[in-house]
Request: fold
Amino acid sequence: MAVRGLSLTGAIVAVSVGVLLPVVLSTSVGIIAIATEKSTKELVMGVLIVSFTCAAIGGAVVSVVLLGRKARLARLQSDLLANVSHELRTPLAAIRMYAQTLESGLLASDPEHTRQSLATIVRESERLEATIERVLNWRALARDRAVVELQPGSLRGAVTDAVERFGRMVAPGEVGLVVEIGTDAPVDHDREAIARVLLNLLVNAHKYTYEDKQVGVTVQDDGRSVAIAVRDNGIGIPRSELDRIFLPFHRVEADGASRAAGAGLGLAIVRHLVRAHGGEVEVESRPGEGSTFTVRLPLSEREPA
Ligand code: ADP
Reply:
């Protein structure tokens, strides 16, 4: 990874040769001077040389760590830009294509196709907006600006908001979506934040299921917490990746399956928001069979407002 024209490996080699080598040599001289001390002057010189070399080693180590961190940050930023651009390109291309067809007047005498084209433009715009929101959400969360305002109440409103919005993002009949809200038990929650959590999970269920997309959402309580589960019959996640998918910018690349574009922020946002509610999110998945993400939020001990 290049940092302003200098590669990280090059920088490490330069620091090692330019600083560490002379430092090691002078340390040896200092130690020899202390060991074979013939006068107080030589002892003082030895101690000074060793102290100086220790400080230099410390400085070199700090420089290498800082360079490494800077290189990692630069790589994350460029990956994020590449991944987000990639994710934006597909809906943008569809919007342009349908808009150009409408502009050409080819569909002027075909109201049904005109309606379908307009519906596609609206749908793809929703997807564009959702992708941009993910990046902005993450930016706010990373700066600790996203404050959740918890109110006691049923999760029905948040679930309905997310499901309705998701419905506007997919073509009619594209996903078999079944929603079962089996409880109205009160949870201290921020309606918008929980809708965002569920929307991210629904978008992933859609994105990582390629054929015969079947998605189920259930809301149940066990007397202590309310669980929102999102189940899909998609490509699944390799076991070795299950812990890492919630890390920001982490994407599953290694299982050979061709995976849809993404910035790797959706699940990091989910976990962050769920934890802000005192809850947890977990996943069960089998490659080739599907995944179930479960969000557990503690039951409210307050009376609904
Ligand atoms: P993104 O989807 O933008 O890559 P996420 O943080 O939402 O970022 O997801 C991280 C990774 O977890 C994805 O790259 C994907 O490989 C995997 N993943 C998430 N949800 C699912 C799912 N429902 N089915 C299969 N893989 C999933």
About this structure: The domain at 151-298 is CATH 3.30.565.10 (Heat Shock Protein 90). Residues 1-5 have pLDDT under 50 and may be disordered. The two ends are 54 Å apart (CA to CA). Strands lie at 2-3, 6-7, 151-153, 175-181, 187-189, 213-221, 225-232, 280-286, 290-298.
